[in-house]
Structure formats: C-alpha cells, structure tokens
Specification:
Bound molecules: nicotinamide-adenine-dinucleotide
Largest sheet: 7 strands, parallel
Helix content: 25-40%
CATH topology of the largest domain: Rossmann fold
Number of strands: 17
CATH class of the largest domain: Alpha Beta
CATH superfamily of the largest domain: NAD(P)-binding Rossmann-like Domain
Length: 469
C-alpha cells in the first residue's frame, strides 16, 4: 500500500504545500461507512480502509488554547500532528501572529475568532470549539472561506440533568437556606413546608437531550413526569406529553426549563405563566437566561406563589469570575439575592470533569475525521457531508474535496474535469452560498492527481481544493 497524502490549495495560498509530499505514519482512524458506490456495503466493510492522510501528519499544525481537555490532546497527538497546547487565551495581536501558521485551532469561549483574526488565517482548515456555543467565531466568514467549524452541543446533557435532580431535592428541603443559616451559626431545625420528592409531579418544558435525561432520573426518584414540547416525542418510561404549556404549569409541582434560546422562548415564563402555576410550586431554569422574566419571578416569589426557584442562567452573564460581577450586569440582582429558597448558580449546569472530557473526545474526533478524511459531520457552518472510506485494495484511488461557491454550472465544470476518470462515489451538499463536494476517483496516476488538482484550482467558483490520496 502506498502512503496516503494530501494536496491542498487556497486562493490566497497559490500552490504552497502543493505536492509537498512526505511519509506519514499509520493512523488508526476509519471514517464511517455510507451507502453509496458500486460495491455493496457488505463487501466494502470486509475490506480494510485505506488510511487517507493529509501531507505527513507531522506537517499539520494545531494550536490548542484555553486549557482544552487532555482527552482531545491525546487524540490529536496520537495522529502525529504538531500540537501546541496553551493553558490560557491569547491577546488579539498574539492570536493574529500565531494563526497565520496553523491548520487547526482549538478554543473555548474566551477566544474571539473575528473576521479581523480569521483574515490572517491563511492556512486554517478547521476550528474546534471545545464548548457548546459558537458565538465567539465569525461562522459566516469562516464558511465563505472554507474553514469548517465544529463544537460539542450535547456532551454535557447528563451533567445538567443531574444538577436538576440535586436542585429539586434541595428546593423541596430548603437546603440552601438551612446551609446558609448554619454557616452564620443559626440552628433552625424545621420540617414545615419541607417535602419528599417521591410522588410529586415534575413538568419538563423542552424534552430534548437534557429534558429526556432528566425524565429518566426523576422517575427513578419516584416522581411522575409530564412534559411539553413543540414537537410530538416518544416519552421515556412512564412520562406523558401534554399538549399545552398551560396544562403542564397547572399540573406540575416542579417545573424545569430546557428549551433553546429563540424569539418564541423569550420570557416564556412571565407574569401570566406564574399565575397558571400551582400555588407553592417550584421553578428551575438551566436553559437560557432570556426564557424567564426575572422581575416577574421576584414578584411571584415575594407573593408566596412560588415556593422556591433555582437559576443557573441569566439574561446578562458576567464575562469573568469575580466578586460583585453579577450585580454589575443585572439591575435586579440585589432583589434576587434577598429571596428565600432561591438557589443561584453561575451557569455551571454542564461544568463537570466528565462533560469536559466528553467534549474533548467529540471535537477531537470530529477534527481528526475532517483532516484525515474530509468528513464534515458535526460541523456548525458547513453542510454535513461524508463518504465511506476508500479500502486498502483501492491503492490508486484519491479523494477530492472541493469547497466552492454555490452557483449554477459548477457541478458540470467539476464533472467535466473528473469525467475522464472513474468517479467511484461522489456527494455534494450546500449551505446558503457555499457548497461542499466530495468525490472518490479510482485508478489515478501521480501525474493525473496533479492535473486534477490544478484544473480544479482554476475554477472561479473555488474556495478550497483538497486532494487526499
Ligand atoms: N446550564 C447549562 O450549563 C447548560 C448546558 C447545556 C445546555 N444548556 C441549555 O439547555 C437548553 C436545552 O438544551 P438541550 O441540549 O436539551 O437542547 P435540545 O435541542 O436537545 O432540546 C430542546 C428541546 O426544546 C424543544 N423546544 C423548542 N422550542 C420550544 C418551545 N417553544 N416550547 C417547548 N419546547 C420547545 C425542542 O423541540 C427540543 O426538543 C438549551 O437552551 C441549552 O442552551 C444549558
């Protein structure tokens, strides 16, 4: 088997790296099998995959900022990439200086990858956001310039669900208040309005990744679970879907919110909804701060309608840890802090070692799949495209990746370039004005690879050409 390698091009890069070929170590990565191609899936799966590799892997330079979890570093190191790891973030000037030279950058929420920074990223193929959100990246600019962005939206669902269970019990037993009193030296042994959660009704709003995990945990604790979601969903265990939010609010002893931040979910729980809730019920929000109207919550708690609440997210959240930072960004913060049986946490629902480790694995593997095989599965700014692996016996097959402007006639031009060869499998998808094409071409000689690459590079629609072989 010949060593697989890559040719890559960018409009600003002329043909640097073009045919800069060296030996690559053996990788352990196998891309997922899809259903295309002349060979049956069963036949293909019996054959070992050809290990496609970009250049020599040691040529791939990766910069990991913000103390990204060791799980990710291990995955990337194992591929043989050049990985530089920094515990902190970088100033804009330093970031610009560093980003010029690297192929992949891994960040968390502090690093701002703005257009100004990305403009300098002449060699950048991919960005790994080792977190949930991607607001810190100019996704649009990245997409238009063929830079694929990955994140990990669901690796911390279990952590959030577990926090909800802890808080439901804490609110039912007024643990926050007893703890705070005893820290002050006050002994206050009471059972008035303290409850078991067994037999109580939990109303889950948004039955997605977190809501459904919570449903299972809550039933195991002896709760009855109802949920409201805008789409009909398969209930887990004995949970029951209700058809309106009003119905849920009128039945639930505890209401937990797990919806996304959308115009429709802004102030989803406000004055009117607090009136619809049961007297003495509890509200927990670990979704997004905009979902609850905080002044209305303060009013409902002061009036005794709501017996307790837990908030992990807020309409404005401080950018940095530190004393008084919460009060500075929210006018009602002082009023909140004065309320009894109210648990306030600083957006830590998903902050566990397990979640960080899972995020490291998910994003690390997505980056590896993209670099080695061109698969964009899990990307937030590109169409999700993949092809099954090339098998080892298909020694002279090459994989072509062509990111291009999505306009009429491009596929015809690409296919006329590929047309003299046997296109073993091909797929393409678009997202707004950018399209992503993958094609595996068989029996291509070394000189033909060059000519395919050069021909694709000359197309005016080209954003990025990669040839893996
Ligand atoms: N506190 C934290 O640390 C933390 C961590 C992870 C996620 N989150 C937040 O939790 C929320 C849920 O996350 P997830 O991973 O479960 O999301 P998800 O996308 O898996 O589930 C969301 C569910 O809400 C439903 N939904 C959407 N609009 C709705 C509406 N108007 N009414 C009722 N249901 C609606 C969707 O159909 C979906 O089933 C998100 O806002 C996310 O940002 C917070």
């Amino acid at each position: 088997m010949t060593e697989p390698r890559e040719i890559i091009g960018r409009h600003w890069q002329a043909s640097a790296n073009y045919l800069s070929i060296s030996t690559s170590p053996i990788s352990t990565f196998h891309s997922p099998v899809s259903s295309y191609g002349h060979r049956s899936r069963a036949d293909e799966s019996r054959l070992p995959s050809k290990q496609l590799k970009p250049f020599a892997t040691e040529d791939i330079k990766i910069l990991l900022l913000e103390n990204i979890n060791k799980t990710a570093r291990d995955i990337l190191d194992k591929q043989g990439y050049q990985v530089e790891f920094l515990k902190g973030s970088l100033s804009e000037d330093k970031l610009i200086e560093k980003i010029r030279d690297i192929h992949v950058i891994g960040i968390r929420s502090k690093t701002q990858l703005t257009e100004k920074v990305l403009r300098e990223a002449k060699n950048l193929l991919a960005i790994g956001c080792f977190c949930i959100g991607t607001n810190q990246v100019d996704l649009e600019y990245a997409r238009k310039h063929g830079i694929v962005v990955f994140n990990s939206p669901f690796s911390n669902s279990r952590s959030v669900a577990e926090l909800m269970i802890a808080e439901i019990i804490s609110l039912a037993r007024q643990l926050g208040d007893r703890n705070e009193e005893l820290h002050r030296g006050e002994w206050n042994k009471v059972s008035n309005k303290c409850w078991e959660i067994r037999g109580k009704t939990l109303g889950i709003v948004g039955y997605g990744h977190i809501g459904s995990q919570l449903s299972v945990l809550a039933e195991a604790m002896g709760m009855s679970v109802i949920f409201y979601d805008i789409i009909p969903l398969m209930a887990l265990g004995s949970a029951k879907q209700v058809s309106t939010l009003t119905e849920l609010l009128s039945m639930a002893d505890f209401v937990t919110l797990h919806v996304p931040e959308l115009p429709e979910t802004k102030n989803m729980i406000g004055k009117e909804q607090f009136l619809e809730m049961k007297h003495g019920s509890y509200l927990l929000n670990a979704s997004r701060g905009s979902v609850v109207d905080i002044p209305a919550l303060i009013e409902a708690m002061t009036a005794g309608k709501i017996a307790g609440a837990a908030l992990d997210v807020y309409p404005n959240e401080p950018a940095e840890n530190g004393p008084h930072n919460f009060d500075r960004v929210n006018t009602w913060a002082k009023d909140l802090r004065g309320l009894k049986n109210l648990i306030l946490t600083p957006h830590i629902g998903g902050s566990t070692e397990e979640a960080q480790s899972a995020i490291g694995i998910e994003v690390g593997e997505a980056l590896t799949r993209y670099i080695n095989e061109g698969s964009t599965i899990g990307s937030v700014n590109m169409p999700e495209v993949t092809l099954r692996s090339i098998s080892q016996s298909q020694e002279n097959n090459v994989r072509i990746i062509f990111i291009h402007q999505n306009r009429p006639g491009v596929l015809r031009q690409v296919n006329s370039i590929l047309g003299d060869h046997n296109v073993d499998k091909q797929t393409s998808d678009s997202r707004n004005d950018v399209a992503y094409l993958m094609a595996d071409v068989s029996d291509v000689s070394f000189n033909e690879i060059k000519s395919l690459y050069v021909s694709l590079e000359t197309l005016s629609s080209k954003i990025l050409t990669r040839v893996l072989y």
